[in-house]
Amino acid sequence: MAEAIDFPGSNFTFTPPPGRDDIRDLHTFRQHDGPSNVSCWRFTPEELAEVNRTGCCFLTVMSHRVFFPAFVGTEDTVRSVIIDYGSVWKKAPAND
Predict the structure, then answer these.
(1) Are 33 and 88 in contact (CB under 8 A)?
(2) Per-residue pLDDT for 57 more than 80?
(3) Which of 78, 66, 83 is nearest to 40 (CA)?
(4) What are the pLDDT digits (tens) for 2-31?
(5) What is the spatial distance between Cα 96 and Cα 92, in angstroms, rounded to a whole number?
(6) Computed over its alpha carbons, how large is the radius of gyration of the chain?
(7) What pTM was computed for the model?
C-alpha cells in the first residue's frame, strides 16, 4: 500500500488516536489561510508499475457518509489547484 511520507513544506502532523497502532502519523501542509491539507504518498515499486501500466490509482477516504472534496495529483498539479484557496508550500530544490 502506498505510504504517506513527510515532505519539504509540511507544517502539521495528524497523529493517530490513542491505542491505534495500525495508524501512522500523517504529515501535511495545512493552509493557515485556506481549507486545504496536503499529504504526500509514495508508491511501492510494484504499485508504481501498476499505475504506469493502467494509468489509474484509487483514493479511499474512510469517512462513512461524509465525503469531503478530495483529489490526487502530482506536486505541481496540487499546488496549482490549492493556490486558488490560499498559500502553498515552498518546493524543495529539484534533485536532477
Answers:
(1) no
(2) yes
(3) 78
(4) 999 999 999 999 999 999 999 999 999 999
(5) 12
(6) 15
(7) 0.85
